[in-house]
Design goal:
By secondary structure, the chain is α+β, with helices and mostly antiparallel strands. Helix content is about 20%, strand content about 25%. It is globular, with a radius of gyration of 25 Å. It starts with 7 loop residues before the first helix and ends with a strand.
């Protein structure tokens, strides 16, 4: 029950498919920019780590049914849209996961939307307003399916939409399980306002004491069935909806509380395209959160590069800071296992797997695991790549501007670096990783991760030819000294601000200040940037930006070069990238010009001393 792409039009299309089959009314999605309720309106939750941190100590690995449910690939959904999901097919994928991928760390078998709905999407509910397995799809029932998954040494996952589904309302007369005086009418708003990404549920009013008891009853049910994972879908702010009706932070907090009392550890994953403005709420109350829309193309393959795979390079960087043990940035499923069904080239399949691995996203396949080809299996079982995903440390992020040629990196626990080169362009291109952007100079030894091959020592950096939509993945071990730099603060009175540019406070920024309002002609000029000799320098720019933005960068009055900066995670969240600039010996000016657009806010620059 998820929309198909990041665009509002396709969101409506997917919602309409479900609404027609379920007999629901569908509202057009609102802007995703709203922030909904204030934090004070969300119930306080004790022990933000939930006591389930061990559940998500590392990004989880496994398989999910949704990609196969959505594809038009011949023969997959033989009984109509979303009909792939059956007990028989889940059993087949369970067996394939156990035999092919379990030894590499893949362990979750996740059953997605539709397990309680018939072929025409008509739902089934028990007498307490809780979803009940459709007997044609799952004739043995959900507990038996989980038991079989566990029998293979794997973990079982299940899916629910957020809110009280309209069909489970029962005119407000259904009794809430394990209560004497609570009904479905006692847990929702009197005006029956709707919620979630498709408006398919009534919004639960958590100011009412019976509301938590309903969520408790759902959590107890799936725990008693033996499920180890719950995907809670359509959560807002996000899912292309905003405003009070679509603020489900209280729902997620209620689910966290319910899971703690249900008697079984359950990984709580929330979906989809969550609002980064509430990332700290998602951190506090869940074990993972989708950072983007569905990766599936809802076409005759599982995905396509242009549909939404490539969007992840733009949309992921701002989330990097929020990932860590207990909760991870979820980039959606990895559909790299089969050439014909994936809809991707070999280069695209490798780039797909590379980004997910270095971003420390959960790695869960959406492929038909019974039909994985040799190349797909090699991508999914490369132990060195999987180790990068599973090892401690921060996810990788861009360290240079984010045009067609991109360099992503992260520092590893051993002091070395994971470095990925990406070519987002449509033709082959060289891509260079400069050691200055990593924070050191001189020599470094380089190992090709995908090919398990030592490439020897490289001075100053490494340049490699990368195919269209392709990638290279290295571990880099520095052997030279740390880079020495000279810092220049944006708020220095020696600098020149023009247009709308002005000073602003910034808790994360150096000196507690930055220069903002760089839009439509706003400029910041550093007036006395001194270097000992002329040459090309990688200037580290610290900045804040709530979304990806571009700014013109120039030195000494030359024409500005449009330079793309990734989002940092919010306008109060500081991060940095290294920007190439040609400087003359002695004093220089360095200008950041918004031109006719909107630029990031600038905190400071660090200029290498060479």
């Amino acid at each position: 029950m998820r929309p198909s792409t990041r665009t509002a039009a396709r969101t409506v299309r997917a919602a309409l498919v479900l609404a027609v089959t379920a007999g629901l009314a569908v509202a057009a999605p609102a802007s995703a920019q709203g922030r909904g309720k204030t934090d004070s309106q969300v119930p306080a939750v004790e022990e933000a780590a939930t006591g389930t941190t061990a559940v998500a100590e590392k990004p989880y690995m496994g398989w999910s049914s949704w990609s196969l449910q959505t594809t038009k690939y011949p023969g997959v959904n033989s009984k109509g849209d979303y009909s792939y999901l059956t007990e028989e097919n889940v059993n087949k994928q369970t067996d394939a996961l156990a035999s092919k991928l379990k030894k590499f760390g893949y362990e979750y078998v996740n059953i997605d939307a539709g397990w309680w709905r018939g072929w025409d999407w008509t739902p089934e509910f028990d007498e307490f307003g809780r979803q009940k397995a459709d007997t044609e799809r799952f004739p043995s029932g959900m507990k038996a399916v989980a038991d079989r998954i566990h029998g293979k040494g794997l973990k079982a996952g299940i899916y629910l939409p957020v809110g009280l589904e309209k069909e489970g309302y029962g005119e407000g007369k259904l009794r809430i399980w394990n209560t004497d005086d609570c009904t479905t009418g006692d847990i929702v708003y009197s005006d029956l306002r709707t919620t979630n990404g498709w408006d398919s549920s009534y919004k639960i009013d958590f100011s009412k004491p019976c509301a938590q008891k309903y969520v408790d009853s759902q959590a107890k049910l799936i725990a008693d069935w033996g499920y180890d994972f719950l995907k809670l879908d359509g959560v807002g702010p996000g899912s292309f909806k905003s405003g009070d009706n679509y603020d489900n932070r209280a729902d997620v907090a209620a689910w966290q509380k319910a899971i703690k009392s249900a008697g079984r550890p359950v990984h709580l994953e929330i979906s989809w395209s969550l609002d980064i403005g509430h990332a700290k709420d998602w951190q506090a109350t869940s074990n993972g959160w989708r950072v983007d829309t569905d990766v599936e193309c809802y076409c005759n393959t599982l995905v396509s590069w242009e549909n939404s795979v490539e969007d992840r390079w733009r949309d992921t960087p701002g989330w990097t800071r929020y990932a860590g043990p207990g909760g991870w940035n979820d980039l959606d499923s990895i559909n790299v296992g089969n050439a014909a069904m994936s809809g991707l080239t070999k280069a695209e399949r490798q780039s797909y797997m590379t980004l997910w691995a270095i971003a420390k996203s959960p790695l869960y396949s959406g492929d038909d695991l019974t039909k994985i080809d040799d190349y797909g299996l090699s991508l999914m079982t490369n132990r060195d790549v999987l180790a990068i995903n599973q090892q401690p440390g921060r996810p990788a992020k861009p360290v240079t501007p984010v045009g067609d040629e991109q360099v992503w990196a992260s520092q590893n626990p051993d002091g070395g670096y994971t470095v990925a080169l990406f070519n987002q362009g449509d033709s082959p291109s060289p891509v260079t990783a400069d050691w200055q952007a990593l924070g050191f100079t001189g020599q470094a030894s380089v190992r090709d991760v995908w090919n398990h091959e030592s490439l020897g020592r490289y001075k100053d950096g490494i340049t490699q030819a990368v195919p269209a939509h392709g990638s290279r993945l290295f571990t880099v071990t520095p052997q030279g000294p740390a880079l020495r730099t000279t810092a220049y603060e944006a708020e220095s009175p020696a600098n020149v601000l023009s247009g709308n540019a002005s000073l602003a406070g910034c808790d994360e920024c150096s000196g507690g200040k930055k220069v903002g309002n760089l839009y439509v002609g706003g400029k910041l000029q550093f007036t006395d940037v001194v270097v000992a000799k002329a040459g090309r320098y990688l200037v580290k720019v610290a900045y804040t930006s709530g979304d990806p933005r571009s700014v013109g960068v120039s030195a000494n009055g030359t024409a500005p070069v449009a330079t793309a900066f990734p989002a940092t995670g919010g306008w109060s969240a500081a991060d940095s990238i290294s920007v190439p600039v040609t400087l003359k010996a002695g004093s220089n000016t360095l200008t950041f010009d918004s031109g006719d657009g909107y630029a990031p806010d600038i905190d400071r620059i660090d200029v290498p001393r060479v």
